[in-house]
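Quick check before the chapter quiz. The format below is the same one you will see on the exam, so make sure you can read both the input and the output lines.
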Amino acid sequence: MPNFICTACGTQYAESPQPPAECKICEEERQYVPPRGQTWTTLEVLRQDHINAWREYEPSIIGVGSQPTFAIGQRALLLRMPRGNVLWDCISLLDAATISAIKALGGLKAIAISHPHFYTTMVEWAHAFECPVHLNAADKDWIVRPDPAIGLWQGDTLKLWDGVTLIRCGGHFEGGTVLHWAGGAGGRGVVCAGDILAVATDRKWLTFMRSYPNFIPLSARTVAAIGQAMVPFAFETLYGHYFDRVIAKDAKSVLEKSVTRYIAALNGTRDYDRR
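Here is the expected output.
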C-alpha cells in the first residue's frame, strides 16, 4: 500500500489503500487547505517531475530543496561535522541522486526537525540513512507516520555532538525547536531556525507567528520566552526556512532587537510616527 503525501504541506502518512479523508496538518489553523481542495501524491510520482537542488552556504552547511517548489517550499540543511552529519529539517522528495550525494558526503548520523510542517517524509530519510529522527516530545501528537526511528526528546535542550544543541523555543508550535552549532560560521556560531525564528523579507529582522499563512500572531509573553531561550547561545549567522532567508552577520543582535520590536508593537508602546 502507498504512503500518501499531502501536496499542500508535504506530510507523508502511514500506509493506506486510499488517501486519508483529510490532512491533519492542513486542517489545523497554522496551515490551510488550498481553494482547490485536498489533493495527494506519492513519493514515486513526486520523483517523476521534481529534483533536488543544492546550495553551499559555507563549506560545512549545504541547503537542499526541491525544484519546482513543492508543498510550502521547505528547504533542509546538511550540516557536515567531524563526528557525523546532521540533516536539519526535512523535505518531501528523496530520490536516488540525493541519497548518493549525501552518502558521498558522509551520510547522516541523525535528522533533527524544527516543527511538524517539516516532518514531510522523515521516515523515508531515516530508513535510507539508517539514522534516528529527533523531535521534541511536545509535538508528538502531530506524527502521522509512526516509526521506531523517531525519538522524542524532553525538556528545553538536547546536546548532540561537535557543539550542536537543539533548543526548544516553542512559539509557532509548542515543541518548536532551533539548532545551534557553536562551530559554524568559522567558530562564531550559527542557528538553523526553520520558521520558529522567521527571517523577514528584508533580511534585517526576524518575526514570530503562530500561523504565517493565516496571520495569527504570538503573544508578547511567548515571544519574550523565545528570546530568553536563546540568551545562552552566541551566533553570528542564522539560516531560515527558505534558500534565500539567511541573516549572515550579527544575527544574535537581530534576534534581540526583533523580540523588542515585536513586543512593543503588540503592547502598543512603539511610536511609529517617529520612525
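If your answer matched, good. The chain has a mean pLDDT of 96.
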